[in-house]
Amino acid sequence: MDTGDLGALLETLCPMFVLVDETGRILRVGPTLQKLRPDQQMAGKSFVDVFKLVRPRAVKSVSALMSLAGAKLHLKLHDTPSTALKGLIAPLPQGKGAVINLSFGISILDAVRDYALTSADFSGTDLAIELLYLVEAKSAAMEASRSLNLRLQGAMLAAEEQALTDMLTGLKNRRAMDVFLGHLISGSTPFALMHLDLDYFKSVNDRFGHAAGDYVLQQAAQIMIEETRSDDTVARIGGDEFVIIFRGLIDEKVLSAVAGRLIERLKKPMEFESNTCRISASIGTALSTQFVSLKAAEILHAADLALYEAKRKGRSRHALYSALAELGQEGTTTGTPSE
Amino acid sequence: MHGLINRAIQSFVCATYGQSCWLRVTEVAELGFVEFEAMLVYDDDMTVRVLDALCADLNRPRAEMLEDLGTYLVSHPKMEDLRRLLRFGGVIYVEFLHSLDDLSDRVRLAVSDLCLPALELREVSPTEYQLRCFPGLPGYSSVMVGVLRAMADDYGALAMLSHEGQEGAAEVISIVLVESAFAEGRNFDLGARKS
């Protein structure tokens, strides 16, 4: 068989072949390979002038190339787009040159786009079309899964939002407190509302990390549970903010004593992973009976004002809204809250 | 029934008859929700109830409705992805017809829990073919008639399709090719990317 017959045979079987003579000059290339450089006839040029050997790197000359029979070659085109190609070289008998069969490998996705290739450019036994099919099919399926995941995540966030428990501390959350407060007000049950803010919590978080911060919050929550009755409501309403509602308890002396105990216990250093975390608490307390027509926002605002006063006085303190009102710092007890 | 199939029905109804029609259908079918998720699996009964409600709402026979669904799956711009996947089957319409034998395997390659019934193409003459749809998905052959008709358009082939009834367990679709290069088909660019 002469090289003409061989070339015809190769054109049918492997449309990306290169047939070179013993000097490395290209005699003939497959139609698909030529399609990569439509304006530049490859036949007649030297193989190493058109293709650059990426691996094995050391090979520069044609004779060295011939010695790589059977080894996997990684090549590139010299000019852009420098599509990556895989290749295999098979020397012809009696040193009459060689056949190098090329394929795209992983660069196939870019190649079909860059060179507008069609199914007809691939041999019938090539898996290229199946690969392209699979990439598209899997991308479509992945897209559908991804959109489902996004929707599920949204639903999960909504469900968490609606749940009544604060996941970290096990206390009630803001939403639960709102509901409970609404019930108490509409049932005209007298109650006291304490707004408790942890002091120096941010510095624990900053110095020892969020794990330490979480631990401190859990310990603080435990203390609040222990220092209140089972039918009082303890809620975490913000990062380091808590509200305690004492149902049926409007005795300021008793409340001050509870507040004092809470502060005393929260001030005690907490050990977390050999770090000593020091926090404290400021508390403001308001009574439902201090308002003519009670609204949830009003009593929260009142407790907030008392808390602010406690902070202003130097933290680790408890302040009563009644004291503020008497001092005239808050002119009207039934006015619209500022929030 | 796989969510992809339910989702296809939902998408077809919304695009063809409008959102309000779909909401009526989901209510009559007592789904308890209005959106099928493509990647979840639902009770087969739900799909049956949806199709019953749809046929009643529009007062159209089921087979006709399912044929339209098949056409929609290939020809609607929203379904371009699916059209492309089908076009991978072959360069010309006849090649595409032959690729249908592998369709259920191809589908499983992409979505492993989506099982479509087996299809088998028989060549009666170079211009006449019969496609056997094996059982597993009621109404599948009606959908396939719509798909084959729309794909013929897509390839620019002129084909006549008809239901030939049952043969054993399989339902038979007859395909007569009048002209395989009747018109310029739609473009199929192997390397097209989504923008």
UniProtKB/TrEMBL annotation, chain A:
Pfam families linked to this entry: GGDEF, HNOBA
Top-level taxon of origin: Bacteria
Segments forming domain GGDEF: 189-323
Official protein name in the record: guanylate cyclase
UniProt cross-references to InterPro entries, sorted A to Z: DGC-Regulatory_Protein (IPR052163), GGDEF_dom (IPR000160), HNOB_dom_associated (IPR011645), HNOB_dom_associated_sf (IPR042463), Nucleotide_cyclase (IPR029787), Rev_trsase/Diguanyl_cyclase (IPR043128)
PANTHER family attached to this UniProt entry: DIGUANYLATE CYCLASE DGCT-RELATED
Species annotation: Ruegeria meonggei
Keywords: cGMP biosynthesis, Hydrolase, Nucleotide-binding
Molecular-function annotations in GO: guanylate cyclase activity; hydrolase activity; nucleotide binding
CDD domains, alphabetized: GGDEF
Cross-referenced Gene3D superfamilies: 3.30.70.270, Haem NO binding associated domain (3.30.450.260)
Enzyme nomenclature, EC number: 4.6.1.2
UniProtKB/TrEMBL annotation, chain B:
Coiled coil (UniProt feature): none
Protein name: Heme NO binding protein
Gene Ontology MF terms in the entry: heme binding
Domain Heme NO-binding per the UniProt entry, residue ranges: 2-155
Pfam families the record matches: HNOB
Gene3D superfamilies: H-NOX domain
Superkingdom classification of source: Bacteria
InterPro entries tied to this protein: H-NOX_domain_sf, Heme_NO-bd, NO_sig/Golgi_transp_ligand-bd
Endpoints of the signal sequence: none
